[in-house]
Design goal:
The structure holds 2 protein chains of 2 kinds. By secondary structure, chain A is α+β, with helices and mostly antiparallel strands. Helices cover 32% and strands 30% of the residues of chain A. In chain A, strands 7, 8, 9, 10, 11, 15, 16 and 17 form an 8-stranded mixed sheet that branches. By secondary structure, chain B is of the alpha/beta class. Chain B is globular. Classes of the chains: A alpha+beta, B alpha/beta.
């Protein structure tokens, strides 16, 4: 059963009582919350996700709630709880929804040493995937949103999970996070796009999330073969430029963007080295999304 | 102690029972084990008994992931110890590793899947200045800059204010004894050094003797006030006692050493609660001799009440009524054990006032 088959009151009741158990990529997440923004965000953005019975094992129990002190009422705040633990400082209540997404990112990245996890967006077409590793601001989420709104499958906009044995990419499709100017860019790029709650004045500025395509959610169990690694480089007004780059340099870039490189040590070294060897490595400077899509559609037509 | 909800304890003791677990029991076990920092240790248990591959993949990965993280921590602890030795290389000051670092670098049974981050070392008190100076030259800095805190540690505690390495951000506690100067019990550190065991051919790196490792672990656990890792530390004791206890003479020597070190009381608690909570085999004769050390009548029942709560995994599903009270009393007790009242009361007042200021 999918979340969209549930009535809003039923979702709300679950969130307020035993929890709503969602299947997100390979993980099951049980969410509890009484905060309307969290309910609203989940209802819109996770509509196509399977829901599980609460008797099933949950990988992560999370809860978003108001603190039990004065900050419940005065400049109200929200806490993110991972089971009984509070791993982060509270945030203003208006940021409850993005806090849920950020908290989940941490849950997945910090407890999954069976994968090498890169800070990267991943999209796929015809069975072959592009990894866009990148620091915040390089434009990976915008590029990722544009591609998946034009038929590419979303594996993740935030973390590339590489299975150590198969060296394939495990999908973990989630709402795509957009911030500041990129929100308007994507809105004018795809006027029918569905977005979740908008939170202002966060540590990243104004943020919102784009609903992942239904098809990407349905294919959550189909892993993909990494074929290209593209370092995005958004430069205002620059013409699109695709340059092949040195794989050693890119390897170091991946190391820097791997969440659990030091934990996995040698295993991560070999996995990343193998992936870099197998993929074609590029740096892509861009400002125009239509141009970008043409470039990557050409990739998909002639896999290496 | 009848706390049936503590699945970590049940599975730590009888790993094969997990194979009959329902999904929701697994769910609870993983949550409790995570709260107790026991995932990696249970993973080792499952591996030892060849059960790991029989666990459903989605559940198994939580144990193996924690194991990988614990192994990474061990690597970094070994490296830290290497760096500490390098900082002190031109001295011949003996460095005795304590707790997690000793279990790991000394390859002791309690190193099994242990998740921890700090390094604790013991050095002779008269060498403390030299050690501190050398460590500072190599990048370790103090974490407490407040002059009152500095005095608190230097005058009353058994360790320097915790240090942190400026580049690696790793923590280091440099001890000169295993209990505070002002504490009610006074183990003599010279006796600890006299029996310490060299573990490296090329540098003066030691761990405590087997007897002292058990006594230190007991002294630490049963005078601690914040038992976030109380259950894990109890399993440390269980692993040590099961391993060392196969030598028959161990138990008699342990009691004698405890008397000599003025640590008979914590040893009594260690034997009582490992045995009651984890079924650690303690010879009847040893237990009988220990009975002489027990607190009288109601006293023991009160301690049972405190530790029944304090030694459970710190997870809501392991908490019984009055848990908050018991944990608060343990906290008060730890302060009471650490300092006589004429020092403690001004200290606590000072702490309370200072907190308000911030």
């Amino acid at each position: 059963m999918n979340l969209s088959q549930l009535q809003s009151t039923s979702i709300s009741n679950k969130l307020k009582s035993a929890g709503l158990q969602l299947k997100v990529g390979p993980f099951s997440v049980r969410v509890k919350s009484t905060i309307p923004q969290v309910l609203e965000g989940i209802k819109v953005l996770y509509a196509d996700y399977p829901i599980l019975e609460n008797e099933a094992f949950s990988d992560f129990h999370v809860c978003l709630s108001k603190p039990n002190n004065l900050r419940r009422w005065i400049h109200p705040q929200v806490l993110f709880k991972f089971d009984d633990r509070v791993p982060f400082k509270p945030l203003p209540l208006s940021q409850a929804y993005p806090f849920f997404e950020w908290g989940l990112n941490w849950c997945f990245a910090a407890h999954s040493n069976d994968y090498v996890i890169l800070h990267a967006a991943v999209v796929e077409k015809n069975g072959h995937a592009i990894i866009f590793p990148g620091e915040p601001g390089a434009g990976k989420s915008t590029l990722c949103a544009a591609l998946v709104l034009r038929g590419w499958r979303l594996l993740s906009d935030e973390m590339a999970m590489i299975d150590i044995d198969s060296q394939q990419l495990i999908p973990i499709p989630r709402p795509i996070s957009l911030k500041n100017e990129s929100i308007e860019v994507i809105r004018s790029f795809a006027p029918n796009v569905i977005m979740g709650p908008v939170a202002h004045d966060t540590s990243k500025g104004t943020v919102t999330h784009v609903k992942p395509p239904r098809d990407s959610v349905l294919k959550s169990t189909e892993s993909a073969i990494p074929a290209w690694i593209v370092k995005p480089n958004y430069t205002p007004d620059a013409p699109s430029k695709l340059e092949e780059i040195n794989s050693g340099e890119l390897f170091m870039h991946l190391v820097k963007n791997a969440f659990n490189y030091s934990v996995l040590g040698e295993v991560a070294f070999h996995t990343l080295a193998d992936i870099v060897k197998k993929c074609r490595c590029y740096e892509f400077t861009y400002s125009d999304l239509e141009d970008a899509i043409k470039t990557f559609d050409r990739f998909a037509e002639q896999p290496k | 102690m009848n706390v049936s909800k503590n699945l970590v304890a049940s599975i730590y003791c009888n790993a094969e029972d997990a194979l009959n677990f329902s999904q929701s029991q697994w769910d609870l076990l993983v949550r409790q084990a995570r709260a107790a920092n026991m995932l990696a240790r249970l993973c080792a248990r499952f591996e030892d008994e060849q059960l790991l591959d029989k666990i459903p993949q989605q559940i198994k990965r939580h144990f193996t992931s924690a194991k990988i993280a614990a192994e990474a921590l061990k690597r970094s602890i070994r490296w830290e110890v290497h760096c500490i030795c390098k900082a002190l290389v031109d001295t011949d000051i003996p460095i005795v590793l304590l707790k997690g670092a000793a279990y790991t670098v000394g390859n002791l049974p309690a190193g099994l899947g242990r998740q921890f981050e700090d390094v604790d070392i013991l050095v002779p008190k008269e060498e403390l200045d030299t050690v501190e100076r050398k460590l500072m030259l190599h990048g370790w800095v103090t974490t407490h800059t407040d002059s009152y805190d500095q005095r608190y540690y230097r005058q009353w505690m058994h360790e320097l204010p915790p240090m942190r390495h400026v580049q690696r951000q790793s923590s280091l506690d440099v001890h000169h004894n295993i209990l505070p100067e002002t504490a009610r019990l006074h183990p003599n550190p010279k006796k600890l050094f006299a029996k310490a065991v060299l573990i490296d051919d090329n540098k003066p790196l030691y761990v405590l003797s087997k007897l002292d490792i058990v006594l230190h672990s007991a002294a630490h656990l049963f005078s601690d006030g914040e038992l976030h890792n109380g259950f894990r530390d109890l399993t440390d004791l269980d692993l040590l006692l099961r391993d060392f206890g196969t030598d028959e003479s161990f138990w008699r020597r342990l009691l004698n050493r405890a008397r000599e070190m003025e640590l008979s009381k914590p040893l009594f608690y260690a034997l009582r609660y490992t045995n009651r909570l984890l079924g650690t085999p303690v010879p009847g004769e040893t237990m009988a001799q220990c009975q002489a050390l027990r607190p009288g009548g109601v006293g023991l029942r009160f301690m049972d009440f405190l530790f029944e709560h304090g030694l459970q995994p710190d997870h809501p599903t392991c908490r019984k009524p009055l848990n908050g009270l018991a944990r608060w009393l343990l906290y008060v007790r730890s302060h009471f054990l650490r300092m006589p009242l004429y020092l403690l009361i001004p200290h606590l007042i000072r702490k309370a006032v200072k907190k308000d200021k911030h």
